[in-house]
Amino acid sequence: MKQTIYIILTTLMLTSCSSRTFNSKEELWEYINDPKNEYIHTKTVNGVDFSLVYKPTDILVDQELSGQATAKEIDSLRNKYREYLYFNLSMSKNNKELLSNVAGNKQQFGAMVNQLAFGMEQKIHFCTPKKDTVEIADYIYPRMYGMSGATTILLVYPKEKIVTNQEFMTLSIEDLGFYTGEVKFKVPTKIFKNELELAFK
Predict the structure, then answer these.
(1) pLDDT confidence of 18, banded at 50, 70, 90?
(2) Alpha helices (runs of H) in the chain, residue ranges in sequence order
(3) Side-chain half-sphere of 63: how many Cα atoms within 13 Å?
(4) Does residue 41 fall inside a structural domain?
(5) For 45, which of 67, 127, 159, 180 could close a Cys bridge (C-beta 3.0–4.6 Å)?
(6) Would 6 be classed as within a structural domain?
(7) From CA 62, how far away is CA 195, in angstroms rounded?
(8) Count of structural domains within the chain
(9) Are 151 and 16 spatial neighbours (Cβ–Cβ below 8 Å)?
């Protein structure tokens, strides 16, 4: 009896920790964009819309691939990207980029450009439940010059620093001048353990 229970529990654990494979990036994005799967988190504070999306390794791999790729090339790219966690942070007000909302104030506009381009590591914090901060490895802020409906930043964190025995991490964004106060997202660590995969063909 004990052996049977052990086998059942082991099977359940292995099943819950296994990766999930998708046949197309459209299917994968559909899964990611479903809030119940906890890859995307959204909030609206004082008219500012925030969206945080965790991008699994294979999303980055797919973006770099062009045409047919060998299994060796795919594995090489997976090894390259799986050392880090990638998040897209999008922020908008009135369906416009943050900069578009301060375009009439030259001083505020210049300060925000500088903040977005060079100072977001001081405004965004990724912490464990014990308040230990994981330092950002890199972030990319592409200037869209009003051509986009949101300000989007790619955040990169070292995976080895993430405490996966904790249930969640907290990503917080300090007020960027829109009177939102500090905005926080609870990100479950299970999504880092069970990577979603693409069936590359």
Answers:
(1) low
(2) 2-16, 25-32, 57-64, 71-81, 106-118, 190-193
(3) 8
(4) yes
(5) 180
(6) no
(7) 14
(8) 1
(9) no
| pLDDT per position as a tens digit, 162-199 | 866 789 999 999 999 999 999 999 999 999 988 899 99
Q: How many CB atoms lie under 10 A from the CB of residue 12?
A: 10
Residue % of the chain over a pLDDT of 70: 89
Whether 68 has a pLDDT exceeding 90, the answer reads no
**What would the DSSP string read from start to end of 83-100?**
TEEEEEEEEEETTB-TGG
- Identify whether 11 is part of a domain: no
* Token duo for residue 19: 């990766």
Range of the domain at 75: 21-198
For residue 69, being part of any structural domain is answered with yes
Contact 74, 121 (CB under 8 A): no
Q: How far apart are CA 31 and CA 36, in angstroms?
A: 9
